[in-house]
Amino acid sequence: RQARLTLDPGFAVGEVDPRLFGSFVEHMGRCVYTGIYEPGHPAADEDGFRADVLELVRELGVTVVRYPGGNFVSGYRWEDGVGPRGERPSRFDLAWRQIETNEFGLNEFMTWSRKAGVAPMMAVNLGTRGVREAADLVEYCNFPGGTALSDLRAKHGHPEPHGVSLWCLGNELDGPWQTGHKTAHEYGRLANETAKAMRMVDPSIELVACGSSNSGMPTFGSWEATVLEHTYDNVDYVSLHAYYEEHDGDLGSFLASAVDMDHFIGSVVATCDHVGAKLRNRKRIRLSFDEWNVWYMGRFVGEKNLAAERVPRLIEDNYHVADAVVVGSLLITLLRHADRVGVACQAQLANVIAPILTEPGGGSCRQTIFFPFAHAARHARGRVLRVEPDSPRYDTARFGDVPLLEAVATQDGDEVVLFAVNRSVEDSLALTANVRALPGLSVVEHVVLASDDRTLTNTVAEPDRVLPRRVDGASVVDGELTAELPALSWNMIRLS
Ligand code: AHR
């Protein structure tokens, strides 16, 4: 089967914001404890951080990490996690019914972020708390010194401000499951007043208002519109969250999940611009897709009667090849919207629906979904190019007619990279790309993630069952790139 596209620097969507390659660390399950932090582990460094995990995080290419939740943040008191460890309280976490010892808190996260080479993105609690506590947190983190809270930070061993520039105004407050769930008006008013106060402490910060928890929420669309009517002047981003899974063995629809993400992004952009027009405001609100991934939530429903434990194994999905192909297509979709999506965080980073798996006291491994993320984070640079694919299509139960090929390209000087997914389970795609507008290009490498067995996963015991491989055959002749995209595959073709 044949597919065509065009690489032309004249068709630029926008610049790649490195913050599209963000991740998320929540106090949930084993993301923090025995994930990124495990004192006593043979690979633990002097701060108790797992060095094997730090190395994988660097290899993954994560740029920004959202913290400390998620649903967790809506009951969190940030003060519990600072100061001498022996004086920190153990608390019952309402979101996940876990015992939170607060052994790992704000300053540990900042130190970990520096070691991992990522920028922190903090969320404030607007579920059970409000304006005062959020402004205090900004003061503790960012104020240079000479105030009670900035001096307290220094006393806690951090004289230099943490300089956190990106802040989430709560989490999923449209969701009835959220501790402190609110109506759009209640949240919009609170978010706006909190944003103002936080900016009074540090005028340089960027702020994300909560959009809907997912596009299936009954209030989707009206939630965003109402919240933005309250907050438009004082926020920079609105958030989107989406998780995808295969329902009832419908692989075709699952592989087309990016169609839903694309529509979701388009709808939120339209809503932001509608509010902007109504308010006669020329400012453009950007999108923070600060939770996205494959999550087999259906399985979680069975686990949901959560026992009050310290470090339970929660939603530790083990991802197969088809999941990685879907993750690849979601990354492509985020890139295709680089003009409006400025931040995106894959949820989460370690163990909890994560690209990195660890065993307590044991090893760690890269899940299949690690690879498309690492490829895109490392090589998607410069400007995003629209490639206008012309592809055979297939029929899906959920999204109708969907193209087999999903693709996008980036250009950074002489380096052009094509990212592509073939959704066909049976057939490879013979791809032809017109590259006449980019003379002199030749193929540097074609890397593929695919397998004859789409259900194959990596585990800590068997970490290398699914690995990307370099394939031969792609070439540029007379201004045409040709390449074979195997059935059900993620592909990165680098040209220079
Ligand atoms: O990432 C897991 C959970 O999913 C987060 O806590 C919440 O924000 C979302 O519903």
Question: Explain this structure to me?
Answer:
The protein is of the alpha/beta class and 496 residues long. It folds into two domains: 17-379, TIM Barrel; 386-495, Sandwich (Immunoglobulin-like). Helix content is 26%, strand content 25%. It is built from eleven helices and 25 strands. The strands form six sheets. Strands 3-4-7-8-9-10-11-12 form an eight-stranded parallel barrel, surrounded by six helices. The protein has a seven-stranded antiparallel β-sheet with strand order 2-15-18-19-25-21-22, with helices on one face. It has a four-stranded mixed β-sheet with strand order 1-20-24-23, with no helix packed on it. Helix 3 (131-142) packs parallel to helix 5, helix 5 packs parallel to helix 6 (222-231) and helix 10 (321-336) packs parallel to helix 11 (370-379). The longest helix has 22 residues, at 257-278. It starts with a strand and ends with a strand. 51% of the residues are buried. The model has no long low-confidence stretch (mean pLDDT 97).
Provide a compact summary of the structure.
With 496 residues, this protein is of the alpha/beta class. The protein is 26% helix and 25% strand.
Strand order of the largest sheet: 3-4-7-8-9-10-11-12
Helix content, binned percent: 25-40%
Shape: globular
Number of strands: 25
**What is bound: which ligands?**
alpha-L-arabinofuranose
Major sheet description = 8 strands, parallel, barrel
Strand content: 25-35%
Q: If classified by CATH, what would the architecture of the largest domain be?
A: Alpha-Beta Barrel
CATH superfamily membership of the largest domain = Glycosidases
Low-confidence stretches: none
End-to-end separation = 27 Å
Q: Return the average pLDDT rounded to an integer.
A: 97
CATH topology of the largest domain: TIM Barrel
Number of domains: 2
How much is the radius of gyration in Å?
Answer: 22 Å
Q: What is the name of the CATH class of the largest domain? A: Alpha Beta
- The number of helices is 11
Query: What structural category do the secondary elements indicate?
Result: alpha/beta
